Protein backbone atom coordinates (compact mmCIF):
# COMPACT_ATOMS: atom_id res chain seq x y z
CA UNK A 1 0.00 0.00 0.00
CA UNK A 2 1.38 3.40 -1.01
CA UNK A 3 0.67 6.54 0.97
CA UNK A 4 0.75 9.69 -1.15
CA UNK A 5 0.42 13.25 0.08
CA UNK A 6 0.31 15.40 -3.05
CA UNK A 7 -2.00 15.77 -6.02
CA UNK A 8 0.92 15.37 -8.44
CA UNK A 9 2.17 12.13 -6.88
CA UNK A 10 -1.22 10.43 -6.92
CA UNK A 11 -2.01 11.77 -10.36
CA UNK A 12 1.14 10.27 -11.83
CA UNK A 13 0.68 6.92 -10.09
CA UNK A 14 -2.94 6.57 -11.15
CA UNK A 15 -2.12 7.58 -14.71
CA UNK A 16 0.03 4.44 -15.00
CA UNK A 17 -2.95 2.30 -13.97
CA UNK A 18 -5.37 4.17 -16.21
CA UNK A 19 -3.02 3.69 -19.18
CA UNK A 20 -3.02 -0.02 -18.39
CA UNK A 21 -6.87 0.07 -18.60
CA UNK A 22 -7.30 -0.58 -14.88
CA UNK A 23 -10.46 0.70 -13.20
CA UNK A 24 -10.10 2.95 -10.16
CA UNK A 25 -12.37 2.88 -7.10
CA UNK A 26 -12.32 5.76 -4.61
CA UNK A 27 -13.48 5.66 -1.00
CA UNK A 28 -13.45 9.22 0.38
CA UNK A 29 -13.19 9.42 4.19
CA UNK A 30 -12.28 11.74 7.01
CA UNK A 31 -10.38 8.97 8.84
CA UNK A 32 -10.94 7.54 12.34
CA UNK A 33 -11.90 4.43 10.44
CA UNK A 34 -14.33 1.73 11.55
CA UNK A 35 -16.11 -1.29 10.04
CA UNK A 36 -18.50 1.03 8.17
CA UNK A 37 -15.59 2.47 6.20
CA UNK A 38 -14.18 -1.02 5.68
CA UNK A 39 -17.45 -2.21 4.14
CA UNK A 40 -17.01 0.57 1.53
CA UNK A 41 -13.44 -0.63 0.97
CA UNK A 42 -14.56 -4.28 0.61
CA UNK A 43 -17.18 -3.28 -1.94
CA UNK A 44 -14.57 -1.24 -3.84
CA UNK A 45 -12.16 -4.20 -3.84
CA UNK A 46 -14.87 -6.40 -5.32
CA UNK A 47 -15.46 -3.98 -8.23
CA UNK A 48 -12.34 -1.99 -9.04
CA UNK A 49 -8.83 -3.02 -10.07
CA UNK A 50 -7.18 -0.28 -8.02
CA UNK A 51 -8.61 0.94 -4.71
CA UNK A 52 -7.81 4.42 -3.41
CA UNK A 53 -8.90 5.64 0.04
CA UNK A 54 -8.62 9.34 0.82
CA UNK A 55 -8.26 10.52 4.39
CA UNK A 56 -8.83 14.23 4.79
CA UNK A 57 -10.63 16.05 7.59
CA UNK A 58 -12.10 18.72 5.38
CA UNK A 59 -12.27 22.02 7.30
CA UNK A 60 -14.69 23.69 4.87
CA UNK A 61 -17.53 21.31 5.71
CA UNK A 62 -17.43 21.98 9.46
CA UNK A 63 -19.91 24.66 10.44
CA UNK A 64 -18.90 24.25 14.09
CA UNK A 65 -15.21 24.96 14.91
CA UNK A 66 -15.34 22.83 18.09
CA UNK A 67 -16.59 19.86 16.06
CA UNK A 68 -13.58 20.27 13.73
CA UNK A 69 -11.15 20.61 16.61
CA UNK A 70 -12.52 17.53 18.39
CA UNK A 71 -12.96 15.40 15.27
CA UNK A 72 -11.13 12.10 16.03
CA UNK A 73 -7.81 11.69 14.21
CA UNK A 74 -6.21 8.21 14.29
CA UNK A 75 -4.07 8.11 11.16
CA UNK A 76 -1.63 5.41 12.26
CA UNK A 77 -4.39 2.97 13.17
CA UNK A 78 -6.30 3.91 10.00
CA UNK A 79 -3.30 3.05 7.84
CA UNK A 80 -2.88 -0.34 9.52
CA UNK A 81 -6.56 -1.16 8.91
CA UNK A 82 -6.34 -0.12 5.27
CA UNK A 83 -3.17 -2.08 4.66
CA UNK A 84 -4.83 -5.19 6.11
CA UNK A 85 -7.87 -4.63 3.89
CA UNK A 86 -5.74 -4.69 0.76
CA UNK A 87 -6.07 -1.03 -0.24
CA UNK A 88 -3.64 0.02 -3.00
CA UNK A 89 -3.27 3.76 -2.36
CA UNK A 90 -4.05 6.14 0.48
CA UNK A 91 -4.31 9.81 -0.46
CA UNK A 92 -3.45 11.77 2.67
CA UNK A 93 -3.17 15.44 1.72
CA UNK A 94 -2.57 18.43 3.98
CA UNK A 95 -5.07 21.28 4.19
CA UNK A 96 -2.61 23.45 2.17
CA UNK A 97 -2.40 20.80 -0.53
CA UNK A 98 -6.19 20.68 -0.91
CA UNK A 99 -6.73 24.41 -0.42
CA UNK A 100 -3.69 26.36 -1.71
CA UNK A 101 -6.04 29.34 -1.48
CA UNK A 102 -9.32 29.67 0.43
CA UNK A 103 -12.12 28.37 -1.79
CA UNK A 104 -14.77 30.94 -2.70
CA UNK A 105 -16.81 28.42 -4.71
CA UNK A 106 -20.51 28.42 -4.01
CA UNK A 107 -22.81 25.56 -4.92
CA UNK A 108 -26.56 25.84 -4.86
CA UNK A 109 -28.17 22.47 -4.28
CA UNK A 110 -31.64 24.01 -4.02
CA UNK A 111 -34.22 22.09 -2.02
CA UNK A 112 -31.78 19.23 -1.43
CA UNK A 113 -29.79 21.32 1.04
CA UNK A 114 -32.46 23.32 2.83
CA UNK A 115 -33.77 20.45 4.97
CA UNK A 116 -32.32 18.01 7.53
CA UNK A 117 -28.52 18.38 7.80
CA UNK A 118 -28.51 21.38 5.47
CA UNK A 119 -30.87 23.30 7.73
CA UNK A 120 -28.83 22.60 10.87
CA UNK A 121 -25.32 22.78 9.39
CA UNK A 122 -25.17 25.92 7.25
CA UNK A 123 -22.42 25.72 4.62
CA UNK A 124 -21.79 22.02 5.33
CA UNK A 125 -22.85 20.71 1.93
CA UNK A 126 -21.01 23.48 0.12
CA UNK A 127 -17.82 22.24 1.78
CA UNK A 128 -18.69 18.63 0.90
CA UNK A 129 -19.39 19.64 -2.73
CA UNK A 130 -16.08 21.48 -3.02
CA UNK A 131 -13.92 18.74 -1.52
CA UNK A 132 -15.63 15.86 -3.33
CA UNK A 133 -15.28 17.71 -6.67
CA UNK A 134 -11.59 18.25 -5.93
CA UNK A 135 -11.16 14.55 -5.07
CA UNK A 136 -12.98 13.51 -8.26
CA UNK A 137 -10.71 15.78 -10.32
CA UNK A 138 -7.55 14.57 -8.60
CA UNK A 139 -8.26 10.83 -8.49
CA UNK A 140 -10.58 10.58 -11.55
CA UNK A 141 -12.24 7.43 -10.17
CA UNK A 142 -14.45 5.19 -12.28
CA UNK A 143 -16.50 4.40 -9.18
CA UNK A 144 -16.81 6.24 -5.85
CA UNK A 145 -18.28 4.67 -2.72
CA UNK A 146 -20.44 6.43 -0.13
CA UNK A 147 -22.39 5.29 2.92
CA UNK A 148 -26.17 5.25 3.24
CA UNK A 149 -25.74 6.69 6.74
CA UNK A 150 -25.11 10.07 5.10
CA UNK A 151 -28.29 9.93 3.02
CA UNK A 152 -28.45 13.64 2.20
CA UNK A 153 -24.76 13.69 1.27
CA UNK A 154 -25.43 10.90 -1.25
CA UNK A 155 -28.37 12.82 -2.77
CA UNK A 156 -26.28 15.97 -3.07
CA UNK A 157 -23.25 14.24 -4.58
CA UNK A 158 -25.50 12.39 -7.03
CA UNK A 159 -26.96 15.72 -8.13
CA UNK A 160 -23.53 17.33 -8.39
CA UNK A 161 -22.24 14.44 -10.54
CA UNK A 162 -25.21 14.85 -12.90
CA UNK A 163 -25.09 18.66 -13.06
CA UNK A 164 -21.32 18.83 -13.58
CA UNK A 165 -21.13 15.73 -15.83
CA UNK A 166 -18.52 13.98 -13.69
CA UNK A 167 -17.62 10.69 -15.38
CA UNK A 168 -17.99 8.59 -12.23
CA UNK A 169 -20.44 5.96 -11.01
CA UNK A 170 -21.66 6.22 -7.44
CA UNK A 171 -22.14 3.16 -5.25
CA UNK A 172 -24.07 3.46 -2.02
CA UNK A 173 -23.31 1.02 0.78
CA UNK A 174 -25.79 0.11 3.57
CA UNK A 175 -25.16 1.41 7.09
CA UNK A 176 -23.03 -0.88 9.25
CA UNK A 177 -24.20 -0.96 12.87
CA UNK A 178 -22.85 -1.97 16.26
CA UNK A 179 -24.51 -5.00 17.87
CA UNK A 180 -27.04 -2.83 19.70
CA UNK A 181 -28.00 -1.01 16.49
CA UNK A 182 -25.97 2.21 16.84
CA UNK A 183 -24.75 3.27 13.40
CA UNK A 184 -20.97 3.14 13.31
CA UNK A 185 -19.53 6.63 13.12
CA UNK A 186 -16.15 8.21 13.77
CA UNK A 187 -17.76 10.59 16.23
CA UNK A 188 -18.92 7.62 18.38
CA UNK A 189 -15.36 7.58 19.76
CA UNK A 190 -16.12 10.84 21.53
CA UNK A 191 -18.97 9.32 23.60
CA UNK A 192 -18.29 8.42 27.23
CA UNK A 193 -19.74 5.14 28.49
CA UNK A 194 -22.99 6.68 29.72
CA UNK A 195 -23.46 8.54 26.44
CA UNK A 196 -22.58 5.42 24.47
CA UNK A 197 -25.35 3.47 26.22
CA UNK A 198 -27.83 6.25 25.58
CA UNK A 199 -26.89 6.67 21.92
CA UNK A 200 -28.75 3.48 20.98
CA UNK A 201 -31.83 5.72 21.34
CA UNK A 202 -31.35 6.95 17.78
CA UNK A 203 -31.72 3.54 16.16
CA UNK A 204 -34.38 2.37 18.60
CA UNK A 205 -36.44 5.49 17.90
CA UNK A 206 -36.18 4.99 14.15
CA UNK A 207 -37.31 1.37 14.39
CA UNK A 208 -40.09 2.23 16.86
CA UNK A 209 -41.33 5.06 14.62
CA UNK A 210 -41.37 2.83 11.55
CA UNK A 211 -43.37 0.18 13.41
CA UNK A 212 -45.85 2.75 14.75
CA UNK A 213 -46.30 4.17 11.27
CA UNK A 214 -47.05 0.74 9.84
CA UNK A 215 -49.43 0.06 12.73
CA UNK A 216 -51.46 3.01 11.44
CA UNK A 217 -50.33 5.74 13.81
CA UNK A 218 -50.20 9.24 12.27
CA UNK A 219 -46.73 10.64 11.61
CA UNK A 220 -47.48 13.76 13.65
CA UNK A 221 -48.36 11.62 16.64
CA UNK A 222 -45.18 9.56 16.18
CA UNK A 223 -43.08 12.74 16.02
CA UNK A 224 -44.69 14.12 19.17
CA UNK A 225 -44.02 10.92 21.12
CA UNK A 226 -40.42 10.82 19.92
CA UNK A 227 -39.85 14.42 20.82
CA UNK A 228 -41.32 13.79 24.29
CA UNK A 229 -39.05 10.78 24.76
CA UNK A 230 -35.93 12.82 23.92
CA UNK A 231 -37.08 15.76 26.07
CA UNK A 232 -37.17 13.46 29.07
CA UNK A 233 -33.52 12.53 28.61
CA UNK A 234 -31.25 15.31 29.94
CA UNK A 235 -28.17 14.09 28.03
CA UNK A 236 -29.96 14.04 24.68
CA UNK A 237 -31.11 16.89 22.46
CA UNK A 238 -33.15 16.10 19.38
CA UNK A 239 -32.48 18.34 16.36
CA UNK A 240 -34.86 16.71 13.89
CA UNK A 241 -36.83 13.53 13.35
CA UNK A 242 -38.37 13.65 9.89
CA UNK A 243 -40.10 11.42 7.38
CA UNK A 244 -38.82 12.18 3.86
CA UNK A 245 -39.04 10.95 0.29
CA UNK A 246 -35.73 9.12 -0.05
CA UNK A 247 -34.84 10.49 -3.49
CA UNK A 248 -35.86 14.14 -3.22
CA UNK A 249 -35.53 14.42 0.59
CA UNK A 250 -38.83 16.28 0.59
CA UNK A 251 -40.24 16.25 4.12
CA UNK A 252 -43.70 14.64 4.20
CA UNK A 253 -46.35 14.47 6.88
CA UNK A 254 -47.31 10.83 6.42
CA UNK A 255 -47.53 7.89 4.05
CA UNK A 256 -50.57 6.34 2.46
CA UNK A 257 -50.56 2.76 3.71
CA UNK A 258 -53.29 1.93 1.18
CA UNK A 259 -51.03 2.72 -1.79
CA UNK A 260 -48.35 0.44 -3.20
CA UNK A 261 -45.12 1.57 -1.55
CA UNK A 262 -41.87 1.03 -3.40
CA UNK A 263 -38.98 -0.41 -1.35
CA UNK A 264 -37.04 2.43 0.29
CA UNK A 265 -39.41 5.05 -1.15
CA UNK A 266 -39.41 6.87 2.20
CA UNK A 267 -36.82 7.24 4.94
CA UNK A 268 -36.91 8.42 8.51
CA UNK A 269 -33.96 10.69 9.29
CA UNK A 270 -32.74 11.99 12.60
CA UNK A 271 -29.97 14.07 14.19
CA UNK A 272 -29.42 14.08 17.93
CA UNK A 273 -26.88 15.54 20.31
CA UNK A 274 -25.78 12.99 22.90
CA UNK A 275 -23.84 15.16 25.33
CA UNK A 276 -21.91 17.43 22.96
CA UNK A 277 -21.54 14.79 20.24
CA UNK A 278 -23.87 15.21 17.29
CA UNK A 279 -24.97 11.91 15.70
CA UNK A 280 -27.14 11.21 12.66
CA UNK A 281 -28.95 8.12 11.45
CA UNK A 282 -31.70 7.10 9.06
CA UNK A 283 -33.89 4.12 8.27
CA UNK A 284 -35.27 3.41 4.80
CA UNK A 285 -38.87 2.19 4.88
N1 LIG B 1 -21.77 2.99 9.67
C1 LIG B 1 -21.46 3.20 8.41
N2 LIG B 1 -21.79 2.29 7.47
C2 LIG B 1 -21.49 2.50 6.15
N3 LIG B 1 -20.85 3.59 5.69
C3 LIG B 1 -20.50 4.52 6.59
C4 LIG B 1 -20.77 4.37 7.98
N4 LIG B 1 -20.30 5.46 8.63
C5 LIG B 1 -19.76 6.25 7.69
N5 LIG B 1 -19.87 5.69 6.47
C6 LIG B 1 -19.45 6.28 5.20
O1 LIG B 1 -18.05 6.42 5.17
C7 LIG B 1 -17.72 7.56 4.38
C8 LIG B 1 -16.77 8.42 5.16
O2 LIG B 1 -17.44 8.94 6.29
P1 LIG B 1 -16.76 9.69 7.48
O3 LIG B 1 -15.28 9.55 7.36
O4 LIG B 1 -17.35 11.02 7.68
O5 LIG B 1 -17.13 8.76 8.68
P2 LIG B 1 -18.33 8.80 9.67
O6 LIG B 1 -18.24 7.61 10.49
O7 LIG B 1 -19.55 9.13 8.88
O8 LIG B 1 -17.93 9.95 10.60
P3 LIG B 1 -18.78 11.05 11.20
O9 LIG B 1 -20.22 10.89 10.80
O10 LIG B 1 -18.56 10.93 12.65
O11 LIG B 1 -18.12 12.18 10.48
C9 LIG B 1 -19.02 8.28 4.06
O12 LIG B 1 -19.43 7.94 2.75
C10 LIG B 1 -19.95 7.71 5.08
O13 LIG B 1 -21.31 7.72 4.67
C1 LIG C 1 -17.40 12.58 1.66
C2 LIG C 1 -16.48 13.20 2.70
C3 LIG C 1 -15.21 12.35 2.82
C4 LIG C 1 -16.06 14.57 2.19
O1 LIG C 1 -15.20 15.20 3.10
C5 LIG C 1 -17.17 13.34 4.06
O2 LIG C 1 -18.26 14.19 4.00
C6 LIG C 1 -17.51 12.04 4.69
O3 LIG C 1 -16.60 11.44 5.24
O4 LIG C 1 -18.68 11.60 4.61
N1 LIG D 1 -19.87 11.83 7.27
C1 LIG D 1 -20.30 13.20 7.30
C2 LIG D 1 -19.19 14.14 7.46
C3 LIG D 1 -19.48 15.23 8.42
O1 LIG D 1 -20.24 15.03 9.37
O2 LIG D 1 -18.93 16.33 8.27
TrEMBL record:
Q: Which residues bind beta-alanine?
A: 61
Alphabetized CDD domains for the sequence: PanC
Where, in this chain's numbering, is (R)-pantoate bound? 61, 153
EC number, as in UniProt: 6.3.2.1
Relay the record's extra comment.
The reaction proceeds by a bi uni uni bi ping pong mechanism.
Query: What NCBIfam families is this protein classified in?
Result: cyt_tran_rel (TIGR00125), panC (TIGR00018)
This chain belongs to the protein called Pantothenate synthetase
Q: Which organism is it from?
A: Echinicola arenosa
**Taxonomic classification:** Bacteria, Pseudomonadati, Bacteroidota, Cytophagia, Cytophagales
